[in-house]
Amino acid sequence: MRLRRLVMAALIPLVACDEGLFGPIVDPDSPGNLTYQLIPSGDPNIPLGVLLTWDAPTSGRAQTYDVLGRNGGQWGLRATTTSTTFHDAGTPQSQYYVLARDEQGRELGESDPITIDARNRLPAPQGLTSISLNRAVQLTWRSNAYDASPTNFDTYRVYSTAYDAARGVCTSAWELEGTTVSDGFLAGNLANGVSRCFAVSAISRDGHESEWSDARLDTPRFDARNAFVYATATRPDSGGFLFADVSVTPATYGRVAASTRTDLDFVVERHADGKLWLTPGRTAVTMLLYSTTPVADLTSIDRAPSTGFAAVSIEAVPGYAYVFRTTKPDGVHYAAVRVAYVAANYVVFDWSYQSAPGNVELNRVPIR
Fold first, then answer.
1. Could you tell me the pTM of the whole model?
2. Helix (H) or strand (E) run with residue 14 in it
3. HSE toward the beta carbon, residue 34, CA cutoff 13 A
4. Count of CB atoms situated within 10 Å of the CB of 84
5. Around 233, how many Cα atoms within 13 Å sit in the side-chain half-sphere?
6. Cα 22 to Cα 9, 25, 109, 162, 232, distances in angstroms
7. What digits encode the pLDDT tens for the residues 174-215?
8. Cα–chain-centroid distance for residue 308?
9. Which site in 135, 237, 245, 295 is 20 to 30 Å from 223, CA atoms measured?
10. How many CA atoms lie within 13 A of 83 on its CB side?
11. Class of the CATH domain delimited by 21-115
12. 26, exposed or middle or buried, with CB in 10 Å at 0-12, 13-18, 19+?
């Protein structure tokens, strides 16, 4: 008898410590793991709604769920559902919990409440920049939003809207261009010569949207790679180039033509020493050397200079860039060339052309 009492005394502490050894006891009639996911709208303060999800009680007795919410006051019924998810459309409540009911409608158990935590909101992305491309714009920005909370970061949202040139403002018709997890985005299928504004926000893992970055104005342009024009002395039928041939409807861009045409933008001429030079093709075209050092790519030519254009010839040198100021019937247009290769009889180059009159092509200043 004494031995039996000793055994029972030894077992009692183990039973009493069961919760501490194996974790808290879970109510089999209560929904578990209630979580939320905000649905971004573009307005950081007004999401489209919130998606709630939870685990069904392990007892299997739950037939319906009451979803309750509040904004600091009394709890109110938001919906009753048979699913273990609920989309609460519109501005979310600040707190939620879920109550399970059996097939007779009797209360079973309830989940722990959750709070929509605004502290998870990330800072606005900074340093939005852009590069104009052919029917596209390459956007990049700093990683400050990600750096602020790497484990809380989820994605970026990229927006765009039309630009009202008459008033000098971005219009209010913002649209979602897409999402990305990197700090860069290619906005494609855009119209060349048509300016658009762009902005970026950061989304946290629970769906909080940050304030937007400063807006960025950019204008896609025509361009192409690896065009080539012969020296006029070698192939006069292919010794000239037009950034835009407006003699046909619709206009064509990047056209190699005979050096005898009177509407050319430039021609390639061979000097007595055998070197090839770029020469304006008519009096309404002037040009300049973009920089005194080579440029890495055509996209390095970020903006047409405001001064320095002249009716001069400039030697074609691989890696160097040249900017043209050319007058068409609708006004002044700017274009650029980066020489890729110079052979004995021809020049290979990349080119770009801004079809918007008067636009200096990559005049990309922040717009508020």
1. 0.82
2. helix 2-16
3. 24
4. 17
5. 10
6. 21, 8, 21, 60, 88
7. 999 999 999 999 999 999 999 999 999 999 999 999 999 999
8. 35
9. 237
10. 7
11. mainly beta
12. exposed
